[in-house]
Amino acid sequence: MTLQVENLTLYYRTLRGDARALEDATFTMVDGEIMGVAGESGCGKTTLGHGIVLLKPPMKFVRGRVVLDGEELPIWDTEAMKKFRFRKIAIIPQYAMNALNPTRKIGKMISEILRSRGVNFKSIEPELKRRLDLVGLTYDVLDMYPIELSGGMKQRVVLVLSTLLNPSVLIADEITSALDVSTQKAVMEMLVGFRDRRIVKSIMVITHDISILYQVADSIMVMYAGQLAEKASTEVIIHQPRHPYTKLLISSLPKVGVRYTETQLRGIPGSPPPLLDPPPGCRFQERCPVAFDKCREVPPFLELEPGHFVACWREF
Amino acid sequence: MKLKERSEFLYFAWENKKLRIGVSIILFFLIFAIVGPDLAKYPPLEYVEAAAFPPSREHWFGTTIFGQDVFSQFVHGLKATFVVGLIGGSLGTLLGIVIGFTAGYRGGMVDEILNLITNVVLTIPSLAVLIIVAAYLTVRGILTESLLIGLTSWPWAARAIRAQTFSLRVREYVDMARISGMKAWRIIFGEIAPNMMSYLLLVYILQFGGAILYAASLDFIGLGPTNAVSLGLMMNYALLWAALPLGIWWWFVPPGAAITAIVGALYVTNVGLDEVFNPKLREM
Amino acid sequence: MMRLDKVSKVYRIGAFGGKKLPAVCDVSFDIRDTEVVSLIGESGSGKTTIGRMILRLIPITSGKIWFNDVDISTLKGAALKEYYRKVQGVFQDPYGSYNPIFKADRIFHIIRREFFPDIPQAEWDEKVERALTSVGLNPRQVLNKFPHQLSGGQVQRFLIARALLLDIEFLVADEIISMLDASTRIDVLNLLADLKARGLSILFITHDLSLGYYISDRSVILYRGYVVEKGSTEKIYSHPLHPYTKMLMASVPRLDRKWEEVDVELKAKQVELSGGCVYYERCPKADARCHRQRPTLVEVEDGHSVACFHV
Fold first, then answer.
1. pLDDT of residue A252
2. How confident is the model at residue C229 (pLDDT cuts 50, 70, 90)?
3. Which residues from chain C sit within 8 angstroms of residue B198, using beta carbons?
4. Residues A137-162: pLDDT tens digits?
5. Which of A253, A305, C162, C246 is the most buried (most CB within 10 A)?
6. Cβ contact A185–C43 (<8 Å)
7. What is the ipTM for the molecules in this complex?
8. For the domain bounded by B11-37+63-281, which CATH number is listed?
9. Is pTM beyond 0.90 here?
10. Which chain A residue lies closest to B8 (C-alpha atoms)?
C-alpha cells in the first residue's frame, strides 16, 4: 500500500478571509509505516489528517492530490468519499472518546454504525470479538454505556471501531493527549499491534508529543505553520535534525535526567505567524536564528538523503 | 460580548431580519400606545354614539355594543398592556435574578432551599392562584395585577439563571477573582453577570411577553383591573356580549391582533437576538 | 512554610448530599522556604483538589493546613486577604483565567483595587512594569490587550506577573504549562526556577514526570487521593520504590530510551476502595495483606518515604 500526497493545499474559511492552514504538502507513506506528524498548535497537522478523510466546511479544498494505492481520493467530494471512509481509510478524530453517544450502549452504537456502512452486525461479530480481545476488553463492554467506561477503555473501543473494516490507512489524531501516562503507553502499543498484525497497513499518528512518537513511530514529519519542515526516520529526526525548527524544538523538550540546575533548556522566542496573512516564503523566518534573504521564497521539500526530506534553503 | 466586537455586534444586529421585524413591530405599537391616547377623540368608557357602528371616519375602529369608541378603548388598553408587561416583567426578572444568582453562586444548603422554593412555586398552577387572589380583591388596579403576575412568574427565570451561574462559577477566572480577595457580590455582578448579559436580556424579553399574555388571560376571564381598560378586557366584553355571532368584528379583532402581534414580535426578537449573540447560529 | 497535616477532602454528592466521594485522603507533606515541590499524579489523584484547598477555594473536610504555623482554615476577612498577599495560584487553562469580555490588564486593576487602593498612579505603573519585565514580558507589547491577542506563553507569564505584584512567598502552579506549546513550555518553566532562586516556594502540580524532574527539589507521588511515595526528586527518579511510581517511570515516554516491558493492569472505571492499599487492584506484587490493611508512609532512607508493604 502507498499513500501519496501531492501539493495538498487546504484553507479555512473565516469571517476575515481564508486561513492558510496547509500549504503544498507533499509526502509519501509506504506499506507498514507508522508516520508521526508532529508540530505545535496551528501547524496544520489536524487539518492534514482531517482533510484527507473528512473535508467539510469551513475547510476549503484549494489544490492537490491524494492517491491511495494508485486510486485518487476525491477528497473534495464528501459524498464520493463515503465509499472510501472506514473501508480504505479511517480517522480517529481528537476527543473521539468523548463523542460516544451517552444514551446508547456500546454494542448498539457499533451495530448502528455498521448498518450505516451496509455491514451486517452478525456477520462481523466474531471478528469484533477477536478485536476486543486484542485490546484487552471483555465482550460485556458491548453491553455497557459510555459512562461506565474509563478513558482508556473508551479510547480502545474507538480504536476497535475505526479499524473494524480493515482500512489500509488509519489516521490517529491526538488519541493519547487526554489519557494518563500508563494508559497512553497501552493504547499506543495496541496501535502498533494493529499494524503488526496487518489489521491496518499504515498509521499516521498526529500528536504534539514527540516523545511518544519516539517510542512507536518509524518516521516523523515535522510541520510548522501549515508548511512541512522536515521528514525523516525517527532516529534521524531526534538525533540528527537538519531543519532549524526541528533542532530548536528537540532541544527544548525536558527529559527525565535533565535538571534546571545542570542544563538550562531554551525555548523558541516569538510565536507562529498568523495564518490569515502569512509572510511570503518560509513561515519560520521570523523566529529562525539562521534566516537570510532567500527565505522569502518558499523552500521546496527536498530529499537530501534517502528518506530524509528538509525544507530549508540553508541545507541545500 | 467582547467590547471590541461591539461594532461587529451592531452589524449583525442590524442585518438580522428577525430582529429588525420584531423590534419594528414592538416600536410601532409602543409609539401607538404613547401617542394614541392623545389622538383618541373620546374617553374610552363613555357612551358617545349609537351602538355597534362599524368603522367610519368618525370612529376609526367603530363602536362597541354600548356605543363606546373602540379606537380610544384600544389605545388606552394598549398603554395598559405595556405597563403590565413592564412592571410584571421587571418584577419577575428581578426576582429571578436575585434568587437565581444566589442559589447558583452559593450552592450547598442555600441552593437546596432556594431550589425547593422555586420548584414549589413553579408547580403551583399560577393561573389558579391568580384567579383566587384576584377574586378576593374587590378592587383591582393595573399595579396589583402586575405585581401578582411578577410574583408568580419568576421561577423559570430563577432556574435558568441558576443553571447559567453554576456553569460560569467554576470558570477559572472566578477562582482568580476569589484568590484576589473579591467579595461574593462583587464577583457575581462584576464577573459573572456581564458574561450573561445577553441571556439576561432574553429572560427579560420573555418575561415581558409572558406578563402581557397572563394579563390578557386574566382580563379575558374578568379578573383584570376593575376600573381600567385593557385589551384583554375588551375581548372579554366582546365575548360576553356576543360580538362574534352579531358580527361586531371591529370590537375584538384589533385587541386580539394587537396582543398576538406584540407577543409574537417579542418572541421573534428573542430568536433574532439569540442568533446575534451566538455566532454559531448565524448563517454564514 | 506550608505544611499539610492529614488533609482529607470528601465530596458529598446526590440529593441533599447522600453519597460520599473521597478525593483526597490523609495527605501529609510540607514545602519549605525557597523550595519547589512537585505534586505528581494522574487524573483522579486529587492533586488539583489539594492545590485548591491550599488556596482556600474549597473547604477541607478533615486535617489541617498550616502556613507559617497558622491554621489557614481560621482565616477570615482581613486575615484571609493577608493570606492572599502571600499565597497565590496560577491555573492550567491560560485563557480561562481571564474574563473573556474584558482586557487582560483587568487582572492587575483588580489587584490594585483590592490590595493597593491608595497607591498613586505613577508608583503603580512602575510596579506593574517591574513585574512584567521580571517575567520576561515587554510591557509595551502586552498591556492594554485582550487575552486572545496574546499567546499562551505570554498569558501564563502575565498571570505570574500578577502574583508577583503582591510580594508572594508561595505559589501554587497547577498544571500551568500543560496547555502550552512545547517551544514555550520551557520558558515558563525556566521562569519558575528563576523565581525560586529569588526566594519563592512553589508547589508544582503536574502529571508530567519529566517536568517535575527539571525543576523540583522534592516530589510527592499521589494515587487516587493517597500519598504513595515522597522524597527528594533525585532519589525518587533514580530508585522509585512504590510499584505505582515504578510503573509511572516505566510508562513515561522518553527521548533517550524506549518503553520497558512492564506489567501494567489498566484502570477499569474507578471501583470503590476497600480498606486495603489504594493500588491493590493494579499492583503486580499485591497479596492478601495488601487487601486487608492500608500501608502507611514509612521513611525508608533519608528524606524518602514509601507506603508499601513490599519494600
1. 84
2. very high
3. none
4. 888 899 999 988 888 889 999 999 99
5. C162
6. no
7. 0.84
8. 1.10.3720.10
9. no
10. A15
Nearest to C99 among B4, B178, B195 (CB): B195
Q: Which residues of A touch B284 (CB under 8 A)?
A: 13, 15, 58
**Chain C within 8 Å of B57 (Cβ-Cβ)?**
no
Q: How confident is the model over C128-168, as pLDDT tens digits?
A: 999 998 888 888 888 888 887 788 888 888 999 999 998 89
Q: Which domains does chain C have, with CATH numbers?
A: 2-253+260-306 (3.40.50.300)
Where are chain B's structural domains? 11-37+63-281
Residue B8 has pLDDT above 80, yes or no: no
Residues 89-128 of C with CB under 8 A from B: 89, 91-93, 96-103, 107, 110-111, 114-115
What pLDDT is stored for residue A311 in this prediction? 92
Q: Which positions ≥6 away from A303 have C-beta within 8 Å?
A: A309
pLDDT, position C227:
92
Distance from CA of A251 to the nearest CA of C (A): 9
Using alpha carbons, list the distances in angstroms from residue A143 to A3, A128, A148, C117.
37, 14, 10, 61
Contact C184 A267 (CB under 8 A): yes
* B214: confidence class by pLDDT, cuts 50, 70, 90: confident
Chains contacting C (3+ CB pairs below 8 angstroms) = A, B
